[in-house]
Every structure is written in C-alpha cells, then in structure tokens.
Amino acid sequence: MQFYLLSSIKFNNFIVNNKSIIIFKIHQFLKMDISAILDQIFQLPQESKKNLLLTTNLVCYPKGHIILKAGKVESSIYFIKKGIVRAYIDEDNSDATFWFGKEGETIISMKSYVENQNGYENIELLEDCELYELKTADLDRLFNSDIHIANWGRKFAERELIKTEERLISKLFKNASERYIDLLKNNPELIQRIQLGHIASYLGITQVSLSRIRAELK
Amino acid sequence: MQFYLLSSIKFNNFIVNNKSIIIFKIHQFLKMDISAILDQIFQLPQESKKNLLLTTNLVCYPKGHIILKAGKVESSIYFIKKGIVRAYIDEDNSDATFWFGKEGETIISMKSYVENQNGYENIELLEDCELYELKTADLDRLFNSDIHIANWGRKFAERELIKTEERLISKLFKNASERYIDLLKNNPELIQRIQLGHIASYLGITQVSLSRIRAELK
DNA sequence: TGCTTTTTTTATCATTTGTTAAATTTATTC
DNA sequence: GAATAAATTTAACAAATGATAAAAAAAGCA
Fold first, then answer.
1. Could you tell me the pTM of the whole model?
2. pLDDT band at residue A87 under the 50/70/90 scheme
3. Which sign, positive or negative, has the C-alpha torsion A55, B110, B203, B62?
4. Is the CB of B195 under 7 A from strand C?
C-alpha cells in the first residue's frame, strides 16, 4: 500500500497541513433511483407503479447541456437520478435563474405541458446528469387510464405549488439577507454545488449584492 | 314610474351634475355559478360534474369575515360565486397580503390540505361574498373514486402552479413599477376593487412606495 | 350635513440594493 | 506548472425602496 503525502491541502477555505487531523465532510450526493423518486411524491399501488416505471427511460447528458428549451412545446419530462440543474429565462444580456432541481426532483415546463404552449424556461445541466425520461404523451395516457397515477400527478403539482408559493412569500416579504440565510439553512447543498452567480439570481439579487451579504455574515 | 333626481353624484373621482351626459362605466362584477367555475378548470363528463356539484353548498358571509384561519387544519375549500377575498400572513404589527381571489377562483390552504398541517394563511372577505363550500373529506372521496375528478384536481393545481411561478419570476426580476403596470394591465379590476394598502403588499412594496409609483405614472 | 375615522398622498431622510470597474481568487487548459 | 479564463470579492457611487410623520382626500356614520 502506498501513501501520497501532501504538504498541504486546501479544504473549505482553510489551509490544512499534513500533520493536522482532518475531519472530512463528505460531499457525496447520492443517486436516487426512479422507484424512490416516484414514492416520495405519493405511494402508488404496485401495478400502477410498474406501469409508470415501464414508460421511463434512463438517459445521460453532460454538464452544460440544455435539456429543455424556451419557445417550444416539450414532449418529455425528466426525473433527476443524479446531478443538478437550473431553470432560467433569457434576459437581454444575461439570464435569470428561478429554479434549481437536484436528485429526486422533476424537470418539467408546466406552461408547455399544461397549456400546450411554448414554455418560457430553459433548463441547463449544471453537472453531468443521469435522468429518467418520460414522454408527456405516455404520461397523459397514464393519467387518463389509471386513477392512482392521476392522483400521483395531482399530489406532485400540489406539492410544487406549496414550494413555489413559499418562495413567492419569502421574496415578497423578506430582505435579501434573510432569504440567503434561509437558503443556507434549508438547502446548504445548493450553495456548495452551484456557483454564486446563479444563487444570487435565484434569490432575486445581483451577484455583487450576494457577495456583500456573505461578507457581512463573516 | 318615479324618478329620483340627484343634484350631483360623485363618480370615479369626478363630481358630475345632473345635466351632464354621463357615460357609465359599469363596475358590475358578475356572479359566477358553480357549473361555470368547474368548467373553467377542466371540462368534466356530466356524471362526474353532477357528483361534484352535489357535494357543494352555497354559503354567504359578510365583508370582513375571516373564512380560513392560520394555525389550523381546514376542513373546507370554497369557490367564489360573488365577491373578492385576500390571503394574508400575520406579521408583527401589520399583515402581508400575497393572494387575491375573485369570482370563479378557489379558496384553499394548500399547506393545510395537502400536508394535513396547520396552514399559514388567513383569508379575509373584502366584500360580502357568496361562496360554494366543499368539504375536503368529500373532495378526497371523489378524488379517489372518480378519475375525471382526480384529473380535474390535477389540472387545477397545475394551473395555480403556473400562475404562482409567473408571479415569483415577476417579483424576482422586475422592479416595483413594472409589477404595478403589469397588474394594471392584466388585472385592472383588482385595483378598482381593493384598497391600495393591500395591493402594495401583494406587489411586495409599502403603501408609500406604491403611492409614489402612481404619482410618477400620472 | 357635519364629524370622525380610514385611506391615500406627499415630503424628508435612512437603508437596501443596483451599477460599474477593478482586484483577487479559483478553475481550466495547454 | 505557467498562462489564461472564469468566478468572486471589494470599492465607490447611483437608484430604488423603506420608515416616519404630516397633510390631504375619501369613506363611514350619527
């Protein structure tokens, strides 16, 4: 067995030399398989779950890939097995991030799906991703033939609605610093995994403002 | 037939005497019956619609009534036949309005309904209201027994989600003036029917800021 | 009608957030 | 590992929004 001794390594902004005892905080983000993803939305009967599972299909795309494009009607939704993504709207000369999705979450353009109109959001993969793809045509067929799946879809939309309403309320009535602290508390992985420019946009402030807030918290 | 002649009446901030030709802008907000309300969410088959109709019950409450209270699990939802309401969160010494409902819309505490937890919002009637009440227990029974109603409920949540997400994006990336102009364009009745303090809160600004914005637009 | 209360506006000053540009740090590439 | 590019921080000033108080207007009521 061979040991590689480093004279010093940089870890979480601290320089730690090789004589220190290092307690590693493992940043391992576990994969989430399709069965667990479906279950967390709503526990389906075996038969229904099987039908839903049979229509999904594992696909992989690299970091940077745009999996869902503004200005078109999308024909698939995706469940995230591994990786992290952002939804953003094209602005004049920058872009505006309004949602992040990580393992277990669902990528869908609601506007496009529900209203059969062009969606307004792009979805970009911020890491290499493994996704379960589900065709909206298959999903519609299942919604119309299986009451459990219909209620599973209802629960999904209801839960997303609560999350979105809570973010709206937070943005309406809290200041930028409070919103950042809330994010730090409730979603620390996002801040670890996503660059601060996107985080700032998600909080509805500029990157410079976020940097100032972070400096004040030190 | 008898005529009542008024020497002058006050109308839309203008004093108009009885010799003037008055072009009335009728502020008549039509009642919306339950059948039309259900249809606008999703066209149900006759049989399903009948089942849903049979479980609703018309109730009336006066302006100022709090029909849904924070800190409890609610057992009913309501469809608005006539009137206008606001959802708000109690703050230290004021309150924060984050949603308005008018004819055709649905009053529900999603948090309370979906998670069976205490809701965070109060809902106050801003006018005398006529509402169709629907017990959540009945609704659950229908969701689990009628696939069309389950999909109707899914569509409802999906549509609400889109509206809420659009408001979030608007609050994240537009300034107060733009948001006010959007509201003026897309929901002029709200500004006519609701006092500006509540409108300001809904836009996520103070009443004083809204007043300033209105002055600039003159 | 006149009185009282509530809502809205106006004014002044404080605070927060945005803008621009440069410096620094971190990541990427050859 | 050095060079380059990208991300983040810092600084200085501008603009937007908040807080408080007072004035004006509108609404409610006896």
1. 0.88
2. very high
3. positive
4. yes
